[in-house]
Known about the structure:
The protein has 138 residues and is of the alpha+beta class. It is built from three helices and three strands; from the N terminus they run αααβββ. It has a three-stranded antiparallel β-sheet, with helices on one face. A hairpin with a 4-residue loop joins strand 2 and strand 3. Helix 2 packs antiparallel against helix 3. It starts with 5 loop residues before the first helix and ends with a strand.
Amino acid sequence: MMRKSPSMTARRLFWLCERGAIAAEFALVLPVFVLLTIGTIGVGTMMSMIVSLHFAVEDAARCASVKTTVCTNAGTTQTYATGQYKGPTVTGLAFALTAAAAGNCGNKVVGTGTYTLRTGLGAISVPVSASACYPSSS
């Protein structure tokens, strides 16, 4: 009969032992979970920025058509639109007004800029733009 060596028993016990399995699984899952969480927060913030940008251009187009004492020209309309934007920081945010002309949609405001989406692994520059028309009151 063959006698088991103590080192053979120790190796067998090592491979059968399940202590620390939860810690190993946690160490494998944690980085993925953190990256997904950071990415989700970043995309949510970007969606908030898009909604705020759309609101700003819509309100500025309406201002150019209806509130003619506030938005008297392209400069005052841009200032008004910039004041209406309440979202996160957008690099190079600019608004442009195209005055109403025959056969066109009315006063048109276009907002453009670049948003930096932080993903947890790096940053992605996302160009954004929004436009809105509002019929002229005249």
